[in-house]
Amino acid sequence: MYDVVISGAGPAGSKCAEIIAKAGYKVALIERDSNWRKPCGGAVSSRIFKYYPQLRKLDYTPIFGMTIYSADYHQLRYSWKNIRDYSINVDRLSFDNFIRDVAVDTGAEFFDKNISFDYIRKNNKRVGIKTKTSSGTEEYYGKLIVIADGMSSKLAIKSGLREKWNINEIGVGKCAILEGENSLDKENMSMFFKPYKGYAWIFPLDDKRFNIGCGTWPEENLNYNINYLYSKFIKDPFLKKFFPQTNYKTIWEAAYPVPAVGVKENCLYEDNLMIVGDAAGFVSPISGEGIHPSVVSGNAAAETAINALENENISKETLKYYKFNPNIKKIIRNFKMKTSMINFFFENGGKFLSNMLELAEKNDNFRDQVINMFLFNQIPSKDYFLKIKTYK
Ligand SMILES: Cc1cc2nc3c(=O)[nH]c(=O)nc-3n(C[C@H](O)[C@H](O)[C@H](O)COP(=O)(O)OP(=O)(O)OC[C@H]3O[C@@H](n4cnc5c(N)ncnc54)[C@H](O)[C@@H]3O)c2cc1C
How far is the CA of 11 from the centre of ligand 1 (A)? Predict the structure, then answer.
């Protein structure tokens, strides 16, 4: 019998397992396949170092800046060197296994090649998780259950807390790790907003490798084919200056959906159960950033679980503190602000976003406001939006 059984060892599940195990509780961390590379751009903000200081010792190229492009290639380049810590771009295969190892090192028991598919129920109560393995079915009993198995979680739906994602609640992305000579600035990431509701990116990984991809937000999923958008982007003549060669080696490529409407705040907890990470919508609605929010949610759920176990009360009355954790409240608030802005920026085929970057090119004060909004989550003034709307 475990104190906590966690389904899914991505950023949310691994952080949750680590913190609970560190507090001395018995944790089972269940993973479908540790050889799976989560489809992802892999850009991680420097805020991750607070949760994983160990990452500083790894050989990641420090990222000190970002260039944002509008659909018609107005651009804003920003460097945070000397202002804040550097960010990193990670390959999710090694990154996920690294943070799993951190959880195991603190005492969590890791069960790989286990596909969670249902709850074990006794007297109408959930008392654990059933998994499928190559040799049959396994059962993991636990006082508390944490659902951390991502966007496609079956257990989140079976919990009764939320329904299947509606097509209007998800975005779709396709990305690849490519390798070859290039003239990318290795310390800078690029985001290309598009005339459709979505964006593309190039995130350098090292001297030769980079993550490249694109995604659509809700409404456009049915209007555009993601494979078409991806091949159009990688052949974009504007990118020729970065990629002089004709052939780049594809190390890996994949497409995957992503939650796009912010945190499902009414679906986060139940008696003896919490949902964390993508499974609960912890992804930023404009940038698609989900690694850091998922880690934060895993951490908050872990703190809540420890408190519940200490007090021997695992009812929803105790678990509600997960939702009221200040960091979770901050994420929910921030994502709501971004959701309300997303329509504005993509209106008129990306015209407002283009106006915004053109205004930033001309006026330093306005440029600061754009940076504060994109990178430091500050809510812009009404005047800011009015300027963008009436510019052209
Ligand atoms: C195309 C794309 C690009 C993205 N780019 C970025 C980016 O650049 N930066 C960023 O911060 N975020 C990005 N995101 C979002 C980010 O990938 C997610 O928000 C983040 O991975 C969520 O972490 P998680 O732990 O909740 O879920 P996941 O990372 O999905 O982890 C879930 C884990 O559960 C396992 N699992 C699944 N089902 C089962 C099961 N039945 N039983 C057991 N285990 C199971 C999986 O194998 C996986 O290891 C991107 C997403 C997409 C789709």
Answer: 7
For residue 365, the CA-to-ligand 1 centroid distance in Å is 37
CATH number of the domain at 2-41+89-166+260-335, out of 3.40.225.10, 3.10.310.10, 3.40.50.150, 3.50.50.60? 3.50.50.60
**Locate tokens 């970057």: which residue?**
357
Identify the pLDDT of residue 83. 87
Cβ(305)–Cβ(312) below 8 Å: no
- Name all residues whose Cβ lies below 6 A of ligand 1: 7-13, 30-33, 36, 38-44, 96, 115-116, 148-151, 173, 175, 213, 215, 256, 258, 277-278, 283, 288-292, 294
For residue 42, give the ligand 1 atom closest to its CA. Answer: 8
Is the entire prediction scored with pTM above 0.85? yes
Nearest to 251 by CA among 44, 94, 57: 94
Give the ligand 1 atom nearest the CA of 116: 42
In this structure, are residues 138 and 145 in contact, taking their beta carbons and an 8 Å threshold?
no
Range list for CATH 3.50.50.60 in the chain: 2-41+89-166+260-335
Q: Identity (one letter) of the amino acid at 43?
A: A
Please tell me the predicted confidence (pLDDT) of residue 219: 82
**Would you say 5 and 31 are in contact if contact means Cβ atoms under 8 Å apart?**
no
Residues of the chain with pLDDT under 70: none
Question: pLDDT per residue over 205-247, tens digit each?
Answer: 999 999 999 999 888 888 999 999 999 999 999 999 999 988 8
